[in-house]
Amino acid sequence: MPIYILGISAYYHDSAACLLRDGDIVAAVQEERFSRVKGDAAFPTRAVAYCLKAAGISAADLTVVGFYDKPVLKFDRILETYLSVAPAGFRSFALAGPVWLKEKLYLDRQLREALGYRGELLYAEHHESHAASAFFPSPFEEAAILTADGVGEWATASFGTGRDNDIELLRELHWPDSLGLLYAAFTSYLGFKVNSGEYKVMGLAPYGEPKYVDLIYRELVDLREDGSFSLNQKYFNYLTGLTMTNGAFDELFGGPPRLPETPLTQRETDLARSIQVVCEEILLRMARTVHRETALADLCLAGGVALNCVANGRLLREGPFRRIWTQPAAGDAGGALGVAQLIWHRHCGKPRRVIAGKDAMRGAYLGPGFTPEEIERFLQAQGAVYHRPDRPSLLRRVAELLAEEKVVGWFDGRMEFGPRALGARSILADPRSPRMQSQLNLKIKFREGFRPFAPSVLRERVSDYFELDCDSPYMLLVAPVKRQRQIPMTEAQRQLWGIERLNVVRSDVPAVTHVDYSARIQTVSRDTNANFYELIAEFERLTGCAVLVNTSFNVRGEPIVCTPADAYRCFMRTQLDYLVLWPFLLDKAAQPEWKDAADWHTQYQLD
Length: 607
Ligand SMILES: [Fe+2]
Prior knowledge:
With about 600 residues, the chain is an alpha/beta fold. About 35% of the residues lie in helices and about 20% in strands. The chain has 20 helices and 21 strands. The strands form 4 sheets. An 8-stranded mixed beta sheet has the order 17-18-16-19-15-14-20-21, sandwiched between helices. Strands 5-9-8-7-12-13 form a 6-stranded mixed beta sheet, with helices on both faces. Helix 6 (about 180-190) runs antiparallel to helix 10 and helix 10 packs across helix 11 (about 310-320). The longest helix is centred in the middle third of the chain and has 29 residues, at about 265-295. The two termini are about 25 Å apart. Mean pLDDT is about 90; it is low at about 75-85, about 90-100 and about 600-605. Bound molecules: fe (ii) ion. Fe (ii) ion binds next to helix 5.
């Protein structure tokens, strides 16, 4: 009987489950994809059910269940007691206290009831789970590890080393000094949602100037040389209140928080740029400290802050490390994978097998997939109009449609684990089109016009388009578009105010070139996603361009689509022109009229 380990992350943000069979990742998925509630924090009942189904087992077959943190330690009473005695700066990694032991019994019962499981239950520290998710699946035999997020139990950042089959955390930074919370405070002040809007702040930053950086250092952040810092609590409200910032913060930055959905002005873009610059500086200093203290050449990253791919790109270019690998599910969902692997390697004492240059994430395609028969059954029940070309014809046809500036929903194989769409649940378009960015934002995704789109490029061709020559399979590195492809702005264009620059054509792949000539790159390899790779190759044969626009298959505020039914619904409710539900092709113009039932998605849920 193989050893089955189930990892669970829940109750804080973006719940998820991950199942290992003898150490191999069988499945990993976020609960939001089933419940259709973005960032769903509920116990991941359906994610667990999917993982068990993928392995063909029941809860009784599980050897161990691991939980990704010790949630009771987040309680304010403990934190505040701790705060009053704690010194600032990086400190020693400490184990949890006796309060945890009492509360553990309660959580044990909850987990057992939810799972119908009687076996062994283990708990990891929050940042240990992040660190494990960063190192164990990485392509490195040994590496330094850096994690940073909002807050776990009380750690907000940690670093250490990974070697063979274990990790060791050396030091950590504690609440309330948190890079994740600092960024979140600005996210909320700028009128975006905490825990998902951080990405928008990062996208907005290049439109602004770093005008507030000095003010942030003078008043808000006491940053030390080693990357540790103290936040001036006079300006924040998250210790005691429900909002992130307070009146003193408003006064410091010259006004109340921006109301969601109101127009963006230069001030917001300048604030976004300023906090992004501060975030990058903190991470660079932390990375130098980690490098100095571990004397290792490679770095693994995880924790919500590691999704800041602009900062990751700078770390790679300017930081001390030779290579960087970031866990694609860097946020709390990835903790489910981390705790499961920690149990396999540390608790079960099993060795790691590293294949040089390859990580163990299988392209992050670890979620539900559907057979052609299942998809066709759905299409027939739906009365959808479709056809099934052979593989070469389908690839050729989709490449042609893209070259004609059609926008295509692309649903193929197992769904991605983590927040990015990587060619399994993606919306694709032609990056050469100067109209594509605003068209996609406004007509398809119903989201803010300023938001940039990411390129997917053939791995072998990445350095022909971008100032980058390494793997970036998870869209977690930002690099400049290659200098020769950039179109310099005229003096008149330079005079345009921030967001007005959006419509200036800045390269020969304008739809994926951000206002500062940067791009958030996904490199695509044949061995992890053959169909997507061949599609881009076909597009290149047709047009000479080895790049496609790749954005997640969803509309604003919704999780990425999971099932064929989710995909069809999104297709019919937006101005997507074509839909691939591999191996089928659907033309919007041929579909019967769409009637949107309120309980629509629940009718076709996975059981
Ligand atoms: Fe976290």
